[in-house]
Amino acid sequence: MVHVQGSCFLPTPSHSCYHRLHAPTNRHSLCLKPFKRARHLVLGSSMALPPELQALSGQVCKYVDCQGLGKSIQDQQRMLSKLSGSDWASLSKQMQQEAAAAVDGVVKVVEANPAAFLSVGAVLLLSVAAVASRRPSMTTPYPSGVYDKDTAAEYFRERPVLFFSRGAQIAMAALGFGVSVGLDLLMNKYEENEGKRADQATTILTELGPTFIKIGQSLSIRSDLLSPEYLRALTQLQDKVPEFSTETAIEIIKGELGRDVSSVYDNFDRPIAAASLGQVYRARLKDGREVAVKVQRPNILERIALDMHLIRESAPLLKKLGAPGDIEGLVDDWGFGFVNELDYRKEGENAEAFMESISKTPLAKVVIAPPVVWEFTSTRVLTTEWIVGERLEQSSASDVSSLCSIAMNSYLTMMLESGTMHCDPHPGNLLRTQDGKLCILDWGLVQTIDPDLRLKFIEHIAHLTSRDYDKVPADLVALGFVPAGKEKSVQEEESVKVVAGVYTRLMAGGGAANIDVNAVFSELQDLTEKYGNLFQIPPYFAYIARAFGVLEGIGLSNNPKYAIISECLPYISQRLLTDTNPRTAGALNTFIFGADKDKEDRLLDVERVEWLLDGYSSYQTAAGGGSLVSAAKPITTVVEEAAEQLSSLLLTEDDSPVQAIVLEQLARILNAGVRGTWTAIRNSSGKMRNGRTLLGMLVDPLGIFRGTGIFTSDEDDRRVMEATQRLLEVVQRQSVRESMGSLRPQELRAVAAIVVRKLWDKRAKLLLTSNKLASTALRQSLQRLERRR
């Protein structure tokens, strides 16, 4: 029988183990002298243990305090100096000697009576429990209200039973599941039992709590990684997590808002959804507004803090097992977001900040977040207006593909523009509203991204979407994906080849299912053997990877050939064409000129220009409300919007990157066209006896410009005119896509009138831009003359 006294579990004299160990025998006697100095560490003077085992418990307890639970030497020195006043070095050595004596005593007991093994184990557990039974000095793992690894470590150092029991719970759950799957494989019953194992995995994650439910939610939409059975089971974690009682929720609301639920809400009955951190009720305010009320689970902070601390303490082991990257940093980033997510006031502020930032973008009319009712919102209670809609991945509406694009553009806008990114886009948090908009729910988990990092990502994504894979390794170095000292190795030709191969397959669509994982692993293994571990996951990327991994999963559920890199093109195209930042301008030049971007006579890559125009058009379509809304617009409206967008890009008073490129290339086309036309007319005028053309003699009788090439078409001009022809074909295809190729005469006249009116309205800017074009053309002619002197 076991009694509970405080938090110590004490065997009583009626326990058979007690009698075996209490039996008087010289063989079992232990050296008590070193143990008596530690007895004061064991609380409770009425413990039903023989004196030698009380001493043994105290010694183990003291040794655990001295050597275990991750205390730093400095902290231990302060603590132990208070207990004994001894010098740390000598005390540490003394404690080790005493602990060794304690272990010798345990060995003798077990050797003399093997059946006593369980009793000795109970004593060891008692020792740890004794440490835990002391009065803790901390009441919360995060006294400041934000994630703090040091205060959490101190908090759980005072609660070793919590620490070890939780670790054992997680380890046993993982081991049990692993054994079950292993047996299925050995007995060739894996497919037969797959559904059962999927349900088992879901149950385990649910029982392990919020941290593991979050992991399951992220995996629940990865159709490229998991089988249908696992997807089916894990999907339950999105909104079918076990509820806590409504009575508890009512008490929490009363404590948070300071008033009875009935005085605030009507129809507050049962929760409509339960999630990892809280559950949601649909209710009605006294003024008639329908609202969603989210109530936080009770006592959740300690569980999350414990899981974060456990994973952090396991980092050395995980690294030995081959886990890449800064695991402690990843946990710290994850923990910071997790703890912030528990303050519902911050969640409301995040939602409002998103609406303010998105209102300044073309997506303002197609993306929303639920308005917050601040009067009835607190740390643990959030009230927002009710949004009528259906989950994005469950919607059968024909515009779901467009909404998936809107979701991607929205997240890229958050990540690369506003710098505050929603990091929890599981399917339950993305709704299609009745009027065809995208509603993003649950703003508790967000990440702030540094401006310099945003620009690095823009450059990187521009390289990916333009298929400049040879530049990707340098991007990975800049973004922190390459460990220190490996910068040169990752840019070696064979490393670039492997990276390019992976991204090429990702561009083809289908997610991870389209990649030969074994082949990629083999290639990476070869690189590792030659250069060491070349890649790591930087701490800041954990939430970004999770968010876009979820978005890719939603996209794949709607389209098996979904390619997340390609889906970045619309936003990147819009950003490259509209952003005036010098680094973004550099990325634009790289995108459309490729390796020739720094050459004086560079010529745009027509294929890349078409990608850019396609992406920009897709972005504008999404921003306009999707293909269905765009199709319903009159052609004159479409043309007017397009003319406004084009004029805002090109007819600017201040120099812009896109205007500079367009004027540069247009000047080259004009110069090449003039030279080509002049050459054709001159050659058709007939030749004189001296070999010169008649027109040439009339214009330049002395032959001053004959050898300069300033009026003579050459191979470069031919390349320019060929590119111009291909570019016109691209424009024609774009016109057909926008339904411009099948306009009736009346519509053509209306379109022409719109264009003329736009040009007239912007005539001052048009004149300024024309002057810039003339200046650019003249400068190019002078440079050509200088090169041929």
Automatic annotation (TrEMBL):
Pfam families: ABC1. InterPro entries: ABC1_dom, Kinase-like_dom_sf, UbiB_kinase. Residues 236-472 form the ABC1 atypical kinase-like domain. SUPFAM superfamilies: Protein kinase-like (PK-like). Belongs to the protein kinase superfamily. ADCK protein kinase family. This is ABC1 atypical kinase-like domain-containing protein. It comes from Guillardia theta (Cryptophyte).
